[in-house]
Structure formats: structure tokens, C-alpha cells
Specification:
mainly alpha; about 0% strand; about 80% helix
Length: about 150
């Protein structure tokens, strides 16, 4: 597969993952903790994504994972897809926890804590991104014969 196709595949997979994780867990938190209806949660979710700076800030970790995995796909598609799935699963767990905490804080009227619980998740992903980069370097070298 060509380089552009690899990067396009992971770019769109990361975009879809970002939307599913962020909007999905926001809707889940609204319906499970606040008791809002599904139609209300669907119509009022992801309003913050209309601000371009916030959308880019939220999407940035997903984009970095896409870049790392697309570069790994040059060596092995299965390793790249595995690394991508693991990173997205970790991000999903982080966002799930953050949205649940955020809604709990909202019910307690702790507005600042509620906004920071989700808003700082992109900054909290850097350890995952560093580990993913190291894993990419290791997985990219595995089974490659040494140069003599």
C-alpha cells in the first residue's frame, strides 16, 4: 500500500475514533448520570467541537497516534492496527472516566472541576503517546535483520 493511502486510512480511522470516543461517552454520561433523554443528549452533545481550536486540541492525540501507526504500517499492518487499537482503547478509558467524573462534578455544582475533568484529557495523553512512539520503534525493528 502506498504511503498516502496508509496515512489517509489512519487519519480517517483516528477521526472516527475521536468522534465516537468523545461524543459517545459524553452522550453516555448525560443519559446515565443526569438522566437526560437520548434525543436531548444527541442534540446537545459536542457543542464545544464547533470551536476550531478546541476541536484541534481534542483531536491532536488521536492524530499523533494515526501518524505513529501509519509509519509502522510500512513495516507491518497487523502491528500498526494492534498499536492503534491499544492506544484508542486507552484514550477511550481516559475519556470515559473523565466524562463520568465531569457529570458527577456538574451534579455537585463544581463547575471548574467539571470543565477541567474533560478539558485536560488531551494534555494527559502525552505518556501514552511517548509509550506508543517507543513501541513503534521497537515493533518497527522486530524481525529486521541486522545490518552488517
Amino acid at each position: 500500500m502506498k504511503s498516502a493511502q496508509r496515512y489517509a486510512f489512519f487519519f480517517f480511522a483516528s477521526l472516527l475514533s475521536c468522534l465516537l470516543v468523545t461524543v459517545g461517552f459524553e452522550i453516555w454520561a448525560w443519559t446515565s448520570l443526569r438522566g437526560k433523554s437520548l434525543s436531548y443528549a444527541l442534540s446537545n452533545s459536542a457543542g464545544y467541537m464547533s470551536v476550531p481550536a478546541v476541536a484541534v486540541f481534542t483531536y491532536a492525540p488521536f492524530l499523533v497516534v494515526a501518524w505513529i501507526c501509519a509509519s509502522l504500517a510500512r513495516v507491518s499492518w497487523s502491528r500498526a492496527l494492534g498499536l492503534f487499537a491499544i492506544c484508542i482503547a486507552i484514550f477511550a478509558a481516559m475519556y470515559y472516566s473523565a466524562y463520568m467524573r465531569s457529570e458527577t462534578y456538574m451534579l455537585e455544582r463544581a463547575w471548574t472541576a467539571a470543565s477541567l475533568a474533560v478539558g485536560l484529557i488531551p494534555l494527559q495523553t502525552w505518556p501514552v503517546l511517548i509509550i506508543a512512539l517507543v513501541a513503534r520503534l521497537i515493533l518497527g525493528r522486530k524481525n529486521v535483520p541486522a545490518k552488517t
